Amino acid sequence: MKQWRVAIGQQQYGPVSEEELKSWVAQGRLGPADLVWSEGMNAWAPASSVAELGFPPVGAAGATPPPFPPPAAYPQAHRGGAILALGILGLVVCVICGIIAWVMGNGDLRKIDAGLMDPAGRGMTNAGRICGMISVILALVFFVLAVIINIIVAVTATTHSY
Fold this sequence. Notes:
Layout: E1 3-8, E2 11-17, H1 18-27, E3 35-38, E4 45-46, H2 80-92, H3 95-113, H4 122-159
């Protein structure tokens, strides 16, 4: 059974089964101008142009043509794997990798939400971003503790010198 991706307004959903998508049509949740995509399609298409979904054909009474041509499938592939790897490296090796993962993850999640990047990598992107955040926060905590310990050692050394 086909799995579909759906763009309704600025929100994307999927994968969604064909049966569930047909129920969305029946409920009015999926309109004729909303965009759909499934493997094998060259580009996103208005739901009304996909015969399997049960919309009346374009030109039939009550059917409306799409307001704009459908965009190409995602212009950018996701970088979830790279961001996750950088986040893990930030935890294990170098906090700079964590900073990079945090920044890249924020940018890529914005692009995914805007429909400019493949949403299949959302989970890995978010996990990498969170690992990056944790590595930066841990580095800051250790830095503050090191400063506090050095201050305590310096104060006790000056008060106990003979």
